């Protein structure tokens, strides 16, 4: 076991140094993303257990995050959110906001914030944004507004709304669990009630909403026009060509699979045009005939200096774009890689993509790199946006795929509308039982999951698709790291360092500094990881300067749940990056003033409501 806390508070010990080294190691992994976050979480469990003599984390402690109340509650709430979304309730509210908004940008913003924030207070805000991205994109296009003006406000409104209740974000639930655990040391700390901070949350939503409505949209450029031309936005003309098969071509009679192998990995067949009829994303077994034309996606070098293929004419430029634009029974769509997508970390194979999803990839935008030229073999990440050409009848199926967010609604969405009242009643029952403290939130949420299956809102096999497993593994991995910070006294050592630097300042100023620090750290690591690392430090710092630890815990919680400075700090920011055509600087331009404004609002609100 580690040395007693009294000893660790007097200075660094070997235990503290080891735990802080593990924390630094974790931050580097989260920042560099050399491996997916769920794999990083598993690695942290292994490292902590291997270093047990210093971290105090036994193998049982290392996996305790899986059985932690916060982890299981988050899992259950994700399933409940999925059940509500499958009934089309969120989408129906979105369509009504379209009817209200019309062509007025101010009304469109008001509708977006007014629908998104309250919903995000009771449904996990990540799926809320995933569901509303296509709705808001359609709202913008119908109202002759650039989607760029609405999509970042959609993401920010969901984060603000997530602070209305305990269940608005997974971060709130995790922070509540940490606060309860620390309550054994600090009497002021306890598990959050359902509406513990709703008063402050309402103020945050109103102030943030007013900023987005009157100031924020003026800071956002129109990156994409209404009803944007996807081919221009993705510079598709630079990457496509057409190969016409003459009668003497050696490819006549061969399958698409064989021809793809012959052409090489950098050339992907998007369409087969035969007798003025196009086959989009052709299956590999399709046999080619003389006179067929192949529309292919490649890279600039190949288009500029095409290879020589006997019996095949190479065409580039406007005629190829015209072919894509006039293709009947096909459409262009943007697919955003979802947080729980099976494709995250996988290398993009256009042939496999065609076979599995029936869609041909024309372009790719990354939150980290912008437009990507060489897409074959590139590892996909959350928030990557693929431009695809797809048969119209395939779009509804893609919209049901958990791997993607389709950035516009299919013409005939498939929802269980008859189950909507049941789903809403179950969610209300879960919240009501937890609020009245008749049942712990964990038990009421799990009961709600069972009720949704028994009533047919969800099929049993849909439970697993509803869960964002990387979030669950992340929680399970960082929770034992937080335990190690507390047990070894590393949190107290960090707090002592902070107090030495800032302890002479008024407690309210130190509280504000914790908000700012948490916000900045959340931009480079996950929001859940930041609360695990900083809540113990914040509570210890408050105790050392004679302030209210609960006030400091709330400041960290609010800051970690509202990350406005970049596309990577929060999942919802990633979801809108591609459909909005944004650049990294757009988030800073609109997000930095909002972050600063909310830091003051939250600090003043905490001091007024809970004292410091």
UniProtKB/TrEMBL annotation:
PROSITE patterns: RCK_C (PS51202)
UniProt-recorded name of the protein: SLC13 family permease
Predominant place of localization: membrane
Domain RCK C-terminal per the UniProt entry, residue ranges: 228-312, 318-404
InterPro entries in the record: Cit_transptr-like_dom, DASS-Related_Transporters, RCK_C, RCK_C_sf
PANTHER family per UniProt: BASIC AMINO ACID ANTIPORTER YFCC-RELATED
Membrane association type: Multi-pass membrane protein
Organism: Haloarcula onubensis
Pfam families hit by this protein: CitMHS
Alphabetic keyword roster: Membrane, Repeat, Transmembrane, Transmembrane helix, Transport
Annotated transmembrane regions: 12-32, 39-58, 70-89, 109-133, 197-215, 422-454, 466-485, 492-518, 524-543, 550-570, 590-610
Superkingdom of the organism of origin: Archaea
Compartmental location: Membrane
């Amino acid at each position: 076991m580690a040395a007693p806390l009294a000893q660790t508070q007097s200075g660094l010990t070997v235990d503290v140094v080891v735990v802080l080294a593990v924390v630094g190691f974790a931050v580097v992994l989260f920042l560099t993303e050399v491996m997916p976050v769920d794999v990083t979480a598993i690695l942290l469990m292994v490292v902590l257990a291997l270093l047990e003599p210093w971290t105090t984390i036994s193998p049982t402690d290392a996996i305790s995050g899986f059985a932690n109340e916060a982890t299981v509650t988050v899992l259950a709430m994700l399933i409940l959110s999925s059940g509500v979304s499958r009934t089309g309730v969120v989408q129906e509210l979105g369509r009504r906001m379209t009817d209200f908004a019309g062509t007025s940008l101010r009304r469109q913003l008001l509708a977006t914030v007014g629908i998104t924030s309250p919903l995000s207070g009771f449904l996990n805000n990540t799926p809320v944004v995933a569901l509303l991205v296509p709705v808001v994109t359609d709202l913008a296009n119908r109202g002759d507004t650039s989607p760029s003006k609405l999509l970042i406000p959609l993401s920010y409104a969901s984060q603000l709304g997530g602070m209305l209740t305990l269940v608005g974000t997974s971060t709130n639930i995790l922070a509540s669990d940490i606060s309860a655990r620390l309550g054994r040391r600090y009497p002021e700390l306890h598990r959050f009630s359902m509406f513990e901070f709703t008063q402050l949350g309402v103020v945050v939503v109103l102030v943030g909403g007013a900023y987005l409505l009157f100031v924020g949209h003026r800071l956002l450029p129109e990156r994409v026009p209404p009803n944007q031309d996807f081919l221009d936005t993705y510079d598709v003309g630079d990457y496509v060509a057409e190969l016409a098969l003459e009668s003497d071509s050696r490819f006549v009679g061969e399958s698409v699979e064989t021809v793809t192998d012959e052409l090489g990995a950098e050339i992907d067949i998007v369409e087969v045009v035969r007798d003025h009829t196009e086959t989009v994303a052709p299956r590999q077994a399709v046999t080619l005939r003389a006179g067929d034309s192949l529309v292919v996606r490649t890279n600039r070098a190949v288009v500029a200096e095409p290879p020589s293929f006997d019996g095949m004419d190479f065409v580039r430029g406007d005629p190829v774009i015209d072919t894509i634009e006039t293709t009947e029974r096909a459409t262009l769509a943007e697919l955003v890689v979802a947080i729980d997508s099976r494709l995250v970390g996988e290398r993009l194979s256009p042939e496999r993509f065609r076979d599995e999803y029936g869609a041909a990839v024309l372009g790719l935008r990354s939150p980290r790199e912008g437009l990507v030229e060489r897409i074959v073999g590139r590892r996909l990440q959350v928030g990557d946006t693929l431009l695809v050409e797809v048969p119209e009848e395939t779009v509804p199926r893609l919209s049901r795929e958990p791997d993607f967010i389709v950035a516009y609604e299919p013409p005939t969405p498939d929802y269980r509308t008859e189950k909507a009242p049941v789903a809403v009643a179950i969610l209300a029952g879960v919240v009501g039982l937890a609020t009245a403290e008749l049942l712990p939130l964990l038990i009421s949420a799990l009961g709600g999951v069972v009720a949704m299956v028994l009533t047919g809102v969800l099929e049993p096999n849909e439970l697993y698709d509803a869960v964002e497993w990387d979030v669950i593994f992340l929680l399970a991995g960082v929770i034992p790291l937080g335990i190690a910070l507390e047990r070894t006294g590393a949190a107290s050592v960090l707090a002592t360092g902070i107090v030495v630097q800032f302890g002479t300042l008024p407690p309210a100023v130190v509280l504000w500094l914790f908000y700012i620090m948490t916000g900045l750290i959340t931009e480079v690591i996950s929001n859940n990881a930041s609360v695990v690392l900083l809540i113990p430090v914040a509570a210890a710092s408050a105790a050392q300067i004679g302030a209210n630890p609960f006030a400091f815990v709330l400041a960290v919680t609010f800051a970690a749940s509202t990350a406005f400075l970049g596309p990577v700090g929060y999942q919802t920011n990633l979801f809108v990056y591609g459909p909005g055509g944004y650049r990294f600087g757009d988030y800073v331009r609109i997000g930095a003033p909002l972050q600063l404004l909310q830091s003051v609002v939250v600090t003043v609100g905490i001091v007024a409501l809970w004292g410091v």
